[in-house]
Specification:
mainly alpha; 3-stranded antiparallel beta sheet; two-stranded antiparallel sheet; 7 helices; 7 strands; globular
């Protein structure tokens, strides 16, 4: 009886070779599965990003209906030309206010968060109270984008003292990707969403520099002005301060990636020539690469 039991166990046990074979097959299957899972993850993020753009577009249309036009995107302060206050920051102010309490109707899109005299937003570091008083000020506000969870101060992304030429406490709307770590909490957050408003009275969108390129003070007939967010794009990526964004390497790159190739004219034609362009840095967190997400389909 004892010998029969021993023989039974010998017949049902796995050999080392069998175990190694099974483990090898499992490892191969995992190796095949991981890239597929990464592709699914990237696709899910892309879908989520496009959904965010759709929400922002709806909010911008509400803003446009209320104020008879889209928010400005020019690179400087409306009243203080020497002060940088770019398109990404003006978009955030228009959508949720520069203190996330809503847009104030007396705004002149100033980087000091005033109307030139009075304090409109709590973001203003001056100690004076909100004008004319806090209750009246907040009642006047309008929030066009109901979700402000993706709004972060510049120093949250780049760190304190690393946001020049911008004021570090200003807010930007960030995309749905998680390439950046919040400098205070360590939470994964996205890169700023770039916003460019079209000048519909102009006609040029020339990636070949056939005409003089725009400057901060003169768009030189271009429908879009690349300088609207150029200083922001020139900041080193928060996750790699030794790197640069390809979009900042050449002034014509913006016009190349936003040109509608279906239209073949010498002066070029952008996508969305009558409204605005939104750009997410995409999965790699770098502006000007192939995985950038736009509010249009190429």
């Amino acid at each position: 009886m004892k010998s029969i039991t021993k023989q039974y166990y010998k017949k049902t046990a796995f050999t080392i070779i069998e175990l190694l074979t099974v483990m090898s097959i499992i490892i191969i299957l995992i190796g095949l599965l991981v890239p597929s899972l990464n592709m699914v993850k990237r696709y899910a993020k892309e879908v989520k990003q496009k959904a965010q753009f759709h929400s922002i577009e709806s909010a911008i249309e509400l803003f446009s209906s209320a104020w008879d036009g889209y928010p400005p995107s020019d690179a400087t302060d409306e009243a203080i030309p020497a002060q940088d206050y770019c398109g990404a920051m003006k978009l955030c102010e228009a959508m949720v206010g520069q203190d996330l309490m809503g847009f104030h109707p007396d705004s002149h899109f100033r980087s000091d968060c005033t109307d030139g005299t009075n304090k409109l937003y709590a973001n203003n570091p001056v100690g004076s109270a909100l004008w004319p008083d806090q209750e009246t000020n907040l009642k006047a506000r309008r929030t066009y984008l109901q979700q402000s969870t993706n709004a972060y101060r510049l120093w949250h992304l780049y760190g304190k003292g690393n946001t020049s030429p911008f004021q570090q406490d200003l807010y930007v709307l960030c995309d749905e990707y998680s390439r950046v770590r919040h400098k205070e909490t360590g939470k994964r957050i996205g890169m700023p969403i770039l916003y460019y408003k079209a000048n519909t009275s102009n006609t040029i969108h020339d990636p070949n520099s056939g005409a003089a390129l725009p400057t901060i003070s003169n768009d030189n007939g271009y429908i879009y002005n690349y300088t609207d967010n150029d200083e922001l794009v020139k900041l080193p990526p928060p996750f790699d301060t030794t790197a640069t964004h390809p979009l900042s390497n050449t002034t014509t790159n913006f016009y190349e990636i936003t040109k509608d190739d279906r239209i073949d004219i010498d002066i070029g034609r952008p996508y969305r020539p009558d409204s605005y362009i939104l750009i997410s840095a995409g999965f790699d967190g770098l502006y000007g690469t192939d995985d950038d997400i736009f509010n249009f389909e190429k």
